[in-house]
Amino acid sequence: MAERPTYYVTTPIYYVNDSPHLGHAYTTIACDALARFMRLDGYDVRFLTGTDEHGQKVKKSATAAGKSPQAFTDEVSERFRALGPLLNLSNDDFIRTTEPRHTSGVQALWRTLVERGEIYLGTYAGWYAVRDEAFYTESELSPGPNGSRLAPSGAPVEWVEEPSYFFRLSAWGERLLRHYEEHPDFVAPDSRRNEVIAFVKGGLQDLSVSRTSFSWGIPVPGDPRHVMYVWLDALTNYMTAVGYPATDSELYARYWPADLHMVGKDILRFHTVYWPAFLMAAGLEPPRRVFAHGWWTMEGQKMSKSLGNVIDPHAMVARYGLDPVRFFVLREVPFGADGDFSHRAVVGRLNGDLANDFGNLVQRVLTMIGKNCGARMPEPGALADADKVLLGAAYGLLERQRAAYRVQAFHTALAELWDVVGRSNRYVDEQAPWALRKTDPARMAMVLWVLAETIRHLAILAQPVIPGAAGDVLRQLGVADDRRRFADLGPKGALVAGTPLPAPAAVFPRFVAEETA
RNA sequence: GGCGGAGUAGCUCAGCGGUAGAGCAGGGGAAUCAUAAUCCCUUGGUCGGGGGUUCAAAUCCCUCCUCCGCUACCA
């Protein structure tokens, strides 16, 4: 038997300085939908998420909370891990940068880079604001009193020099540009690709990859006064989670290079410039693709702690239900663009697309089968033209879904599914099975079977995005758990007449206005 | 400032050289299997302003206006 093709997809590892919010949920849901889609399509999938736990900010937050960094990160990391059950995530692994498998792997990568002459000891010099504990570039500074300079925060800065290890990033500009050229799908969407190319064309400086100003990090091998730059540390998780530095290990051999790193647009550069440069410098393969998605505003406003409009995923799921939320974030905006998470829009999708269009379609069909076909899957007969048209649309969905998922166009994939939902509702009205019940019961049975079979296709293909509801629909259709893969689509997996069906129950209740307190 | 992107129906957007489109919202109607869900019809736009190329321009070119992104070492 031939080996199944593999697919390795990652979320960024989330920085534990922050509690999980809609943004984290969004990225992870998108990856989950992708992972589920590929699994259903027969791929050997690896889906990774985790937490990024080192750095000065974490240390400060831990101190502020009166905890040790390890105790603090244990706690916050657990809140990210809890997103798994909350959002029905299917990740195969969850990595923390404080785990030994990671820290030792990163140190191995460091040693490799040193051996290859890609890292050298130098001096980092820059404008440093003691109050902010941060360096700033010349361009960020504004003039202060008496010829001094001020940071954007208003803090005074001073010229500071400290020893630091540097990565020879400047040597990789041409190689990176060639990589972008030869792999046009490496950065998506295209607008982001242009940005990255423009950035690299502007010239690259060597990158400071160690710090001596704090110690909450991975020690530099052979020079423990330094800890590693958090991005070198963090990015490497994608490899340490599959066994790096054991490049001959089963996991690494199977899954590296990753097929897709999903990221927010704010961390694009780290993934498309530094990361591939680190890897090429170490003689390793870069990931195949990096997709930068957009951000959500909340009722038209930027989410921020000060505005108090940061969405807690638990509250969001409690209010709307999980599958509606998953559906909304992937359906509402073209993936890659920014979107607005408004109550009105969520309810519109939930009541319109899910409850009225899809949920009600399933309900009306299953109820008619329940009442008029003895609660068993009806007997199909000869196909009328209208039947062929509808079934043809259903059969044609898989290829279209693949094309959309291939480029992470979740919104397109869902729109195509819902096109068939609409066709199905029109078909019900045109065929009017409630009238056929009296005039031509055999034809009624055929119509209901065609609808059930179409719904089977829709539900199987909707599983990646709304796994709970789609699974419920399939259960109500009497489709066994092991007959829900994409290989079961088409006539060969068709619903079998006579199969006893459970009593139908609504899958998507409409959202009704909450009591105003 | 430089580079890139976008401005099309009330809203969100598709169209990217050949008689202005979709979804939602609004208006009217049909049907009654169904979560009063569904289906049909319909109102609505001088496609940001101006100029140009063309038999023909949302669609190509120029220019102006507005908005957004990027312009490196917090992550």
CATH architecture of the domain at 343-516: Orthogonal Bundle
The share of residues in extended strands comes to 15-25%
Helix content: 40-55%
CATH class of the domain at 343-516: Mainly Alpha
- How many helices in DSSP terms? 20
Q: What is the SS-derived class?
A: alpha/beta
What's the Cα radius of gyration? 27 Å
Which homologous superfamily in CATH is the superfamily of the domain at 343-516?
Isoleucyl-tRNA Synthetase, Domain 1
What is the CATH third-level topology name of the domain at 343-516?
Isoleucyl-tRNA Synthetase, Domain 1
How is the largest sheet built, in terms of strand order?
A: 3-2-1-14-15-9
**Major sheet details:** 6 strands, parallel
Write the SSE topology.
Elements: E1 6-15, H1 22-40, E2 44-52, H2 56-64, H3 69-81, H4 83-87, E3 93-96, H5 100-115, E4 119-129, E5 134-136, E6 142-143, E7 149-150, E8 158-167, H6 173-182, E9 187-188, H7 190-201, E10 207-208, E11 210-211, E12 219-220, E13 223-228, H8 230-235, H9 237-240, H10 250-255, E14 260-264, H11 268-281, E15 290-293, E16 296-298, E17 301-302, H12 313-320, H13 322-331, E18 339-341, H14 343-372, H15 385-395, H16 397-406, H17 410-431, H18 433-439, H19 441-462, H20 467-476
The structure holds one RNA strand of 75 nucleotides.
Describe this structure in words.
- With 517 residues, the protein is an alpha/beta fold.
- It has a domain at 343-516: Isoleucyl-tRNA Synthetase, Domain 1 (Orthogonal Bundle), CATH 1.10.730.
- It is built from 20 helices and 18 strands.
- The strands form five sheets. The protein has a six-stranded parallel sheet with strand order 3-2-1-14-15-9, with helices on both faces. A four-stranded antiparallel sheet has the order 5-4-8-10.
- The longest helix has 30 residues, at 343-372.
- It is elongated and about 95 Å long.
- The chain binds one RNA strand of 75 nucleotides through α2, α7, β10, α8 and α11.
